[in-house]
Amino acid sequence: MLLRGPPALASGRCPAISRRQAALHPAVRRPVVRAAAAASATDVGFGLSIADALALVDRTRALKESLPGLKADAVGVQRLPGDVGERVALVAGRDIRDKEAVMTIPEKLAITRVDAEAHDLVGALAAECSELTALTLWLVAERHRGAASQHAALLGTLPESTLTPLLWSDKELDELLTGSPVGAEARVRREALQKQWADLEPKLRADTAKFPPAAFSEQAFMRAFSVVCGHAAFLPAAGCFALLPLASLLGRTGNGNGCDLDFDPELNAVVVTTTRPYRAGSELLLNDGRPNGELVLATGSVQESNTADYLDWPASLVQADKYYMLKAQVLESMGFGPKENFPVYADRMPIQLLAYLRLARVADPGLMAKISFEKDIELSQMNEYEILQILMGDCRERLAVYPKSYEEDVKIAQQRDLNPRERIAVKLRLAERKILNATMDAVRRRLAPIRGIPTKTGAMVDPNSDFKEIFDTIESIPMAPIRALEGFMSWARGDQDPDWGKKPGQGQNRGPPRK
C-alpha cells in the first residue's frame, strides 16, 4: 500500500462483503447526465464558487434520494465557507443523540475491490494490483464511461482530484513545503505511484481501442488515486476499503469527537454512528487519528486544531558507545531497535523519546535499571541535561530549514488571495512549527531547574558562576562608603578591641608583671 494508514488485508478481499451481482438496482443505475458533466468540468472538492457549491448540493441531495436502502434521514447537505471559496458538507439535519446511527448504507452500494475485480473493463488488471490501485482503476474506467456509467450519480459528488502534494510539481514542493518533512515524503510516494503506473501502462497500451490513451492516462490515474485515498473509508470489521455513497463526503477529525464508521455484519450494511450529541446544523465528521502530515498526503486536507497531530522524531544509539551492544539488548527486550521514530505532540512531552535518549546517552551502566518507557524517570542530572540539550538542538535545526519565520507565515495565512495549494501549505507549516515551538518551550522549562553543566569529574558546575561573582562585586561598589563609615564608627566605639573601656589589669592582654 502506498499511503500509510489502516492496513488492507493481504488478499485485498472483504470476507464480510459478498461478491454482488453485476447489475445493481435500477434506481442506482439512473444516470444523472447533467450532474456528471458538471462534475467533470470542475474540481468539486475545494475552492468552489457559489454556483458550483449550489450545483454540488443538488447532486448530493439527488444521490441521497435515489439510493435504495440508504437510511440518512438525520443527515443534511449544506454549503459552508472553506479556506478558499466554498465547500459542501454533511450536517446534522436535526438534533442527534450520542451513539445514534445517522447513516446506514447497504453493502450492495459499497464499492470495494470485489467490484473492481468484477469490472468488465479493468477487472483483469485490478486483480493483479493492490487494493487502492484496484479501486483507482475502477474509478478511471467509470469516469471514462461518463454519463453512461451506472454510478454517474456517485461520480458527480466526488472531486476530480484532491489537494494532496502527490500531485504538486517539484517547483511547488520546493516553494511551498521547504522545511516540511511532507515535501520529501510526497516525492517518495509520488515516485512509487509513478512506478505503479509504469507497470500498468504497457498493458493498457496493448489495447488502445479498449483503453483509450486520453481516458487512461498517467494524469487521470494519479488524479483518481488521490480521490480514492481521500474518500475511501476503511472498514475494520470487513477488513477492506470502500467507496461509499454520501459517507465518502464526510470530513475528518483527529479530536475523537466525530463519528465512527464500520461494517455491521448483522445488518449487512455500513453504519455511521455518532460518538457525542449533535445540534441541528453541526457538521458531521469522521474520526481519523492521523497527524496532519498523513492527512494532507492522503486527503489533501489539514486540521488547524488536530489533537492527533504530531511530528516523527528520529532517535538512535551511538555506535561508538562502548555499551552499544548492552543498550541494544535492553532496547530489544522492550520492543525497540537501535534506530526508532517517536511521535512528538504539541501538548505533551514525548516520554518514550526521553527514555530512549536517556538510555542512549547514559554513561553509567548501573543506571540502566532505572530506565522506564512508561514513567518519566530521570537517571541523573548530568544525563538529563545532555538529552535536553540534544532535543533543543534538534528543534532549532528543524526550525532553521523553514525559509520564512513563524510570524511571516502567520501573515501569509491571513492573505485572502492565496490559491488552494498555497493555503493548505501554509496551514501545514504553521501546524508543524506549533509542535516544534511547544517542544522547545517544554525543554526550556525542564532545563531551568538544572543549575549546572557537566564537567570532566562528573560534577555539575553552575555555568554562570563567573558572571555571578562579577555582578556581586559590581553590586557591592555603591555600598563601599557606607561599610567604611560603619567600620570606622565600630573602631571608635572599640567594638573590635576586647580591652577597650576596661580597668588596668582586667584586659585579656595584660603583659608581664613589673619587677
Automatic annotation (TrEMBL):
Pfam families: Rubis-subs-bind
Organism (species): Edaphochlamys debaryana
GO terms classed as biological process: methylation
Gene3D superfamilies: Rubisco LSMT, substrate-binding domain, set domain protein methyltransferase, domain 1
UniProt name for this protein: Rubisco LSMT substrate-binding domain-containing protein
Domain Rubisco LSMT substrate-binding intervals: 320-436
InterPro entries: Rubisco_LSMT_subst-bd (IPR015353), Rubisco_LSMT_subst-bd_sf (IPR036464), SET_dom_sf (IPR046341), SETD3_SETD6_MTase (IPR050600)
Source organism superkingdom: Eukaryota
Lineage of producing organism: Eukaryota, Viridiplantae, Chlorophyta, core chlorophytes, Chlorophyceae
Keyword S-adenosyl-L-methionine included in the entry's annotation: yes
Segments for region (Disordered): 493-515
